[in-house]
Amino acid sequence: MAVSVDEAVSTGPARDHTPPARRLGSRGRSVLEVALLTVLAVVMLFPVLWMIETSIKENRDVYAIPAKFFDFKVTLDHYKDVFVDPGGGRSALSVSFLNSVVVAGVSTVLATVLGVPAAWAYSRFAVKAKKDQLFFILSTRFMPPVVVVIPIFLMYRQVGLIDNKLGLILIYAAFNVPFTIWMMKGFVDEVPAEYEDAAMLDGYTRLQAFRRFTLPLLVPGIAATAVFALIFSWNEFVFATFLTSSDDVRTAPPAIAGLIGGTTTDWGLVAAASVVFALPVLVFAYLVRKHLIAGVTLGAVRR
Amino acid sequence: MGTVAVQGLCKSFGKVQALDGVTLDVPDGSFFVVLGPSGAGKTTTLRAIAGLEKLDAGSVHLDGRDATGDTPAARDLAMVFQNYALYPRHTVYENIASPLRARRCSSSEIAAAVEQMSNLLHIERLLQRRPAQLSGGEMQRVALARALVRRPRAFLMDEPLTNLDLKLRVEMRTELTRIHRSLGATFVYVTNDQIEALSMADQVAVLKEGTVQQVGTPTEVYERPANKWVAGFVGSPPISLLACRAEGDRLVGAEGWTLPRPRWTTAEDGRALLLGLRAEDLSVEQRGDASLSGELYGLEPLGDRTVVDVRVGTEILKVKARPTVTGTPGERLRVTVDLDRAHLFDAGTGLSLSEAGR
C-alpha cells in the first residue's frame, strides 16, 4: 500500500489516543504522583531557573547571603556585557557566538549534504558488504571524542587546521555524517522504492527521480536529523577547547567556560552568556518540533 | 512497433535464484501474460524488461534492438505497479501528467492528453485529489491512466488487479481487454491468477521458480500442458493426477484400477506414468466404458456446478457434476473417464507424453 510520509507527520486529533491511565478515584493523579513529579520538576528546572535569575541580578545580589530569590533589582547589564565590550565595540563573547553559528551551521549543512545521498544509496542500491560498511560507519561514533582529540590535534597541526574554523567544521561534519547516514537510512527505507521506479519509467533519470519524488518525502526526516546534528555541533566542547585558542576562532562553549576561573568570576556574565547560548537550540527545536516527533516515531510503526 | 524479446535472463538475490534462463518472445500488439505462483520470478522478469533490475546474465531486445544496458527512461516503456506507486504529494492530474512532464511536453498538450485519459477511464472527478483520498479501484485507474497517457513501445503491468475486490476485478478485466484492442499496443501482463491469464491473454508464458515451463495460447496451455506442473497450476479445480503404468492395451493404476490404454500414447510398457484427468472430463454419470470405481469423499457445491471428491484408493479425484447431484460420504460410485481428453505425464520428469499421438 502506498502511504505517504505526510500521514505520519499529521498530528490530527485522531492520533491522540488517551493512554490507559492508572487512576486512583476519579480525580486525576494521586497525591503521591503529584509529589514525586513536583520533586523531579524542581530538581530538573532549578539550575535553569537559577541561571536565568543570576543573569538578571546585579552583582551584589548574586553574591548575597542568604540568597535572594525574589526581592532583587532586575538588570540587563549582563546581557549587554555579553555582546558589547566594556571598552566599546563587539565583545569577545559575541564573536564566539558568531563563530558557533558559523561552525555549527556549516558543519550541519555539510553533514546533511553528504549524509542524505549516502543514506539513499545505502538504502536503494546493492552495495557490496553493505552491513559491514554501515557498521564501520557507525563504529566511528563508538569512541568518545576525547579519545581521538590528541591524534586529531597532531594531524591538524601538520596541515595547519589548528585554530581554524574550517578545522572545527570538518571535524564536526565528520562526526555528524555517520549519524546522518544511519538516521536518514531509516527514513529512506520507509519511502517505497516504487516511486523512483515509476518516475524512471516516466522518463526521469535516477537522480531526478530521487530529487523530485523521494526527497520531498524525506524533508521531515532531514529536519529531525539536522536538528540533532546541529545540537551536537553547537554543544561540542572537547574539540573546540583543544583545537582553538584565539578569540577570533573560538566557539561559545570554550569561551563561556573560559569566563570561569582566574581571580574572580563574573557569575552574572556567565549566566547571561549561558542563557544566550541555550536559546537558539531551544527555539530551533521548538520550530521543528512537529518534524522532530515524526522523526522519532517514524519507523516505529510497521505498515 | 512494439516487440519485446528477452533471452536467457538470469538474476539471483543472495542465494535465491529468481530467474534462471528466462527466454520470452512477445510479438507486436499482443496481450502477453506471464503466469506463475508467487516467487516464480514474474515481477523480476517484468522489472528486467523495464530496466529496473540489474541482470546477472541475459539480454533484453526492444523492437529488435539490444536494450540490455539502457536506462528505464531510454527504453520507452510504461508500467503499472502492483501497489500503483502513485506519487503521494502530487494530485491525480500531476500523477497522470508526470510521464509527459518528464518528456517536456507543452502544458496544452499535457492538458489535452490528461483529459482524454480521464475520460477513457472515468476519473474526471478525481483530477484534483491526492492518492491518499482515492479508493483502491480509483488508484488503479489513475495508475493505468499514467501508463496509458503516452504511447510507449509496450505496456508492462505487474498484477494490476490483485489488490481490487472481486467484482471490480472482473470489470477491469473486460475494460483492460477493451483498452488493449482499441490501442493495438503490446501488453506484458504479470499475474498469478490463471483466470486473468486465460481470459485476457493472446499468449501465456507459465513461469515456475525462474524458468519458463510453457509458452502458448490460453487454449494450448490448458488443453495441452507441457508438464504435470503446468497441468496442476492451470485449471480450477486442479487436475487429478493418478500414478499408473501401461501394460499392453491397458493402463494399470497403482491403486489397482485398470483403464483401456488411450490410443494416442506412445509410452512403453512398465514406465511409471501419471494420468491427468480434469474435473470436466470426469463424470459421475454413466457415459462410457472407461470408468473407475471409488467412494464419495465430499461434495463442494459451487452454485453453477458441484465438485465431487471421489476417493480412488488413497488418491482423490475432483469430478465436475451437475449442481443437483447428491450423495453421502462413503457411498460407492463409478466415475466415467473421457480418455480422449486425458493427459499422460512421465512420473519421473513430469513431462507430457500426450502430444506425440494426437
Automatic annotation (TrEMBL), chain A:
Membrane topology label: Multi-pass membrane protein
Annotated InterPro entries: BP-dep_ABC_trans_perm, MetI-like, MetI-like_sf
Transmembrane segments: 31-52, 97-122, 134-154, 166-184, 213-234, 267-288
Organism superkingdom: Bacteria
Subcellular location: Cell membrane
Region (Disordered): 1-24
GO cellular component: plasma membrane
Keywords tagged on the record: Cell membrane, Membrane, Transmembrane, Transmembrane helix, Transport
Residue span(s) of domain ABC transmembrane type-1: 97-288
GO process annotations (BP): transmembrane transport
Family, as annotated: Belongs to the binding-protein-dependent transport system permease family.
Protein name, per record: Carbohydrate ABC transporter permease
TrEMBL record, chain B:
Annotated GO MF terms: ABC-type transporter activity; ATP binding; ATP hydrolysis activity
Keyword Ribosomal protein appears in the UniProt entry: no
GO cellular component: ATP-binding cassette (ABC) transporter complex, substrate-binding subunit-containing
PROSITE patterns: ABC_TRANSPORTER_1 (PS00211), ABC_TRANSPORTER_2 (PS50893)
Pfam families: ABC_tran (PF00005), TOBE_2 (PF08402)
Domain ABC transporter span(s) in chain numbering: 4-234
Alphabetical UniProt keywords: ATP-binding, Cell membrane, Membrane, Nucleotide-binding, Translocase, Transport
Source species, domain of life: Bacteria
Record-linked PANTHER family: MALTODEXTRIN IMPORT ATP-BINDING PROTEIN MSMX, TREHALOSE IMPORT ATP-BINDING PROTEIN SUGC
Protein name: ABC transporter ATP-binding protein
